[in-house]
Every structure is written in structure tokens, then in C-alpha cells.
Design goal:
Blueprint: E1 33-34, E2 39-41, H1 49-65, E3 68-72, E4 92-95, E5 110-115, H2 119-122, H3 126-150, E6 164-172, E7 184-187, E8 193-197, E9 204-208, E10 211-215, E11 222-226, H4 228-233, E12 242-245, E13 253-261, E14 267-268, E15 286-287, H5 288-297
Parallel strand pairs: 1-10, 2-3
Antiparallel strand pairs: 3-11, 4-5, 5-6, 6-13, 7-12, 8-11, 8-13, 9-10, 9-12, 14-15
Helix pairs in contact: 1-3
Bound molecules: N-oxalylglycine and nickel (II) ion.
Protein name: Fe2OG dioxygenase domain-containing protein
Domain Fe2OG dioxygenase: 162-262
InterPro entries: DIOX_N, IPNS-like_FE2OG_OXY, IPNS-like_sf, Oxoglu/Fe-dep_dioxygenase_dom, Plant_2OG-oxidoreductases
């Protein structure tokens, strides 16, 4: 295995193969943390019809405008430093990305990746187990709220739309030169929806209207973002926002990410209820596995990922 950044970052200045070209590196520009990305109180969605409608509207607006929002009062117990370090079956520890051997420039991050559903097939540790179950029910709850807002029936995303759940721990050690490198370059997530625990260190940025904006680090909140599949299923109503992770020279940053994915064979297409004569489908049907191959092949070109599936 390639050596983790964590094991050598203290001894070195930034190696050449971590330097991004001028057009994609963060540079010296200061990216302010945005107060506009909505922070939604999920506790309110359980206490009466008006509150619930209000929550639905807030989530839907955020998912349309930013592709990003944060939720608190989410009912998940927070134990973010308790994740498993056990690389067992199906669990892997690696640096930069799965594509280490083929990439010219590496990301300043280390990863632990762990499949987390169905639990009894993959789980060996209670902490990851409890966390995964709770985050799963949070994800399904958020999906139901969005369904309600879009006019899809509750439970629309049962089974094959959501049955692959992955837990990824990103670790970004302090970096000698954050302006030249990235923890993760600009991308949209390939899956349906992502639920991320950012912790208290700043670093996640969203690309909106040609500008980078920072996502406020709120230790008790989950950051949620819309993936490509949800953009397709919503027939373009929701946006899969582009985002990246920057590093900093002072503090290590660890994020815990849950990806909710369809199974490879699931057919993805705009929901029938969201397509009509006035709103023709924007995308053709495809299998999720087919999309993943495209996603890998386009190497982070966010425009190109959905191109083969667009109808004119
Ligand atoms: C990701 C991601 C952001 C972060 O893992 O897809 O966008 O802040 N992570 O770690
Ligand atoms: Ni991402």
C-alpha cells in the first residue's frame, strides 16, 4: 500500500506530486464561510403539520439552490472519534484515492472505507454499527422529506435506490502549503445523497455561481448533499453541487462521510411523476453501474459525467 500522508507529513515540505496546477489549486484567496447554506432543525419536522411542511420546504429549497444543507436535532448520537481502525473484510485504508497509481497529482488525505449495509454481512464493531444504523435512518428520513416536497410518494427510495451504504473516513493532516494542494478536488458525488460529519475544522467548500463558498463547520450538525443520481431522478429539479476539500497548516481535519448509493444494476431515470409534456425528461435511463464507469473515466470533469445520459 502507498504510505499514508499521516505517516510522513511532519518530515517534509509539500512534495512535487501534490502540487495542483494554478487553475485548480486553492491559491491564497480567502474563501469565507457562508451563512447562506441553510441549517435545518429536523426536530421541528416531528411536531405538527405546519412545522413539517416548513421543514420540507426548507430542505427542498436548499437542495434546489445549493445542493447542500446542514441538519441538526437529527437524532444521531455523536461519537465521531470512535470509528473502527480495523481493516477487515470489505474495509480498506488508503491514501489520496483509489486511483493512486494512475493519478499525476495526489490528494492530501488518507482514507478508511467501510461498507456498512446490510450490517450483518459487514460489521464487526458496535460503534460503526450503531452509527451506520442511525445515519441510515436519518438519510431515509431526509429522503422522505424531499420526496414529500417533490411530490413523490414516501418510501420512493426503498430497496435498490439506497441499499448500498458506504462509510468513508477522510483524514487531512496539517499541510505545509495549503495554497498549492487539495484534500479533494472539485467533484460532485456520484451517488444519491451524502451525509457528512464535518467536525469543527473548516475545509469543505461548495462551488456556486462561479465562486467557492465555505460550509460552516458545526460539530453537532450533518452536512447533506445531493448526488448525481438525485439530480437525474428529480429531472434536474435538485442540483448535485460541486464541492472540494481544502487543507490547512494548523489542524488535522477528519470527516466521516456516509454515501447512500443505488445498487449497480438499478435503473436510474427521471421519476415518472416529475415528467410530463411541459417537463420532458432531461436524462435517458441508465444503470447505476454504467454511470459509475463514466464517472471514473471522466476523472473529475463534472460536466462530462452526465453528458452521455442527457437528452436534448
Ligand atoms: C467526499 C467529500 C468532503 C470533506 O468524501 O466526497 O466531498 O470535507 N468530502 O471531507
Ligand atoms: Ni464529495
Amino acid at each position: 500500500m502507498e504510505t499514508l500522508v499521516s505517516s510522513w507529513f511532519k518530515d517534509q515540505s509539500l512534495p512535487e506530486n501534490y502540487v495542483f496546477p494554478p487553475e485548480t489549486r486553492p491559491g491564497e484567496a480567502i474563501v469565507p464561510v457562508s451563512k447562506n447554506i441553510p441549517i435545518i432543525d429536523l426536530g421541528k419536522s416531528v411536531v405538527g403539520h405546519d412545522h413539517r411542511n416548513n421543514t420540507v420546504q426548507q430542505i427542498l429549497n436548499a437542495a434546489q439552490k445549493f445542493g447542500f444543507f446542514q441538519v441538526n436535532n437529527h437524532g444521531v448520537s455523536e461519537r465521531q472519534n470512535d470509528y473502527s481502525k480495523d481493516p477487515r473484510k470489505g474495509c480498506s485504508l488508503y491514501t489520496s484515492s483509489y486511483n493512486y497509481d494512475n493519478e499525476e497529482i495526489h490528494f492530501w488525505r488518507d482514507n478508511l472505507r467501510h461498507p456498512s449495509h446490510p450490517l450483518d454481512e459487514v460489521i464487526h464493531r458496535d460503534v460503526v454499527g450503531t452509527y451506520s444504523v442511525e445515519v441510515r435512518s436519518l438519510s431515509l428520513r431526509i429522503l422522505d422529506l424531499i420526496c414529500e416536497g417533490l411530490g413523490l410518494q414516501p418510501g420512493y427510495f426503498g430497496d435498490e435506490f439506497t441499499n448500498v451504504q458506504l462509510l468513508l473516513v477522510n483524514h487531512y493532516p496539517p499541510c505545509p502549503n495549503p495554497s498549492l494542494t487539495l484534500g479533494l478536488s472539485k467533484h460532485s458525488d456520484p451517488n444519491l445523497i451524502t451525509i457528512l460529519l464535518q467536525g469543527e475544522v473548516n475545509g469543505l467548500q461548495v462551488f456556486k455561481d462561479g465562486q467557492w463558498i465555505g460550509v460552516e463547520p458545526l460539530p453537532s450538525a450533518f452536512v447533506d448533499n445531493i448526488g448525481y443520481q438525485f439530480q437525474v431522478i428529480s429531472n434536474g429539479k435538485l442540483r448535485s453541487a460541486e464541492h472540494r476539500a481544502v487543507t490547512n497548516s494548523r489542524n488535522a481535519r477528519t470527516t466521516i462521510v456516509t454515501f447512500i448509493n443505488p445498487s449497480f444494476s438499478r435503473i436510474i431515470e427521471p421519476a415518472k411523476a416529475l415528467v410530463n409534456e411541459c417537463k420532458p425528461p432531461l436524462y435517458r435511463a441508465f444503470r447505476y453501474g454504467e454511470f459509475l464507469n463514466t464517472y471514473k473515466a471522466v476523472k473529475g470533469d463534472t460536466e462530462a459525467a452526465l453528458k452521455p445520459y442527457k437528452l436534448d
